[in-house]
Amino acid sequence: MQATAPMSIWNQLKGQAAKLAESEPCLESVISSSVLERFSFAQALAYRLSQVLAATTPPGFDLAAAFDSVLGRHPEIAAAAEADLDKLATTNPACPDAITGFLSFRGFQALQLHRINHALWSDGREQLAVLLQNWGALAFAMDIHPQARVGRAVFLDHGIGLVIGATAVVEDGANIWHGVTLGSTLTQAGDRHPKVRRNVTIGAGATLLGNIEIGEGAIIAAGSVVLRAVEPYCVVAGAPAKVVGSAKARLDAIAPKSD
Q1: pTM for this one?
Q2: How far is 229 from 209, CA to CA, in rounded Å?
Q3: For residues 256 and 1, which has the higher predicted lDDT (pLDDT)?
Q4: Spatial CB neighbours of 85, under 8 Å, sequence gap ≥ 6
Q5: What's the mean pLDDT when you consider all of the chain?
Q6: What are the extents of the domains in the chain?
Q7: Which CATH number fits domain 161-248: 1.10.150.170, 2.30.40.10, 3.40.50.800, 2.160.10.10?
Q8: Is 4's pLDDT higher than 90?
Q9: What is the Cα 139 distance to its own chain's centre?
Q10: Which residue has the higher pLDDT, 251 or 48?
């Protein structure tokens, strides 16, 4: 028997939105405007972000149109956002489903604003990118420089207090908790921020400084101060951080919910 293809995240989102609007009539207006009246995931994302940021951006700034334009020129943004949302909905026990994450989870929303800002920065529109970065920081309480490079299926849990510097790199599958800083030592110029490789997990309040490599699958314990490179699949903890063990292949708290 041929396996059934998995439902796209956009189709999941629409189906969940329709059910939620029916079961919670008080949410019907926001669900309809954010999802059910939209023709694509990209359009829904542009609209939802514009609504979230409306309180922290100047009056008269047509955010939805601006975001629509960027997403139209950069389809990779929506593709990465779908991967982020799928990971959030399928692994985070605090997120009931994709529609809840899409409508309200600040880590997901802030990351998508960053993706738009990064595209603007790459297109040479640096002033608008930085303005949106700072207006977004007022809404989300996290600050990600537009130049920073972030991969797909990235999970920012809570996110409050997160700071990511301009030359930082965060690769696919990374899991980053609140209060994390990917910063510089102030003794380096140019390329001066951490490089976080695939599937790294960084606990709450950790500080990583300088142009250092955090190897694939490594775990940085909460509250650690990391000033040197970390080998792949190591667990480090402390201030300054030291190796305390080997990383599990998968963390129980963010394993697929079906497990």
Answers
A1: 0.94
A2: 10
A3: 256
A4: 9, 13, 98, 101, 102, 108
A5: 95
A6: 9-141, 161-248
A7: 2.160.10.10
A8: no
A9: 14
A10: 48
The answer, yes or no, to whether residue 208 has pLDDT greater than 80, is yes
Q: pLDDT per residue over 50-90, tens digit each?
A: 999 999 999 999 999 999 999 999 999 999 999 999 999 99
Distance from CA of residue 109 to its chain's centroid? 7
**How many beta carbons lie within 10 A of that of residue 30, not counting itself?**
16
CA distances, 27 to each of 17, 20, 212 (Å): 10, 8, 45
pLDDT of 249: 72
Residue 6 — pLDDT band, cuts 50, 70, 90?
low
What span, in angstroms and rounded, lies between the C-alpha atoms of 87 and 82? 9
User: Is the CATH code 3.30.1330.30 the one for domain 9-141?
Assistant: no
Question: Is there a contact between 240 and 233 (Cβ–Cβ < 8 Å)?
Answer: no
Cα angle 229, 235, 237 (rounded to 5 degrees) comes to 80
Structure tokens at 5: 């293809």
CB 129 within 8 A of CB 114: no
Q: What is the DSSP code (8-state) at residue 3?
A: P
C-alpha span between 124 and 145 (Å, rounded): 14
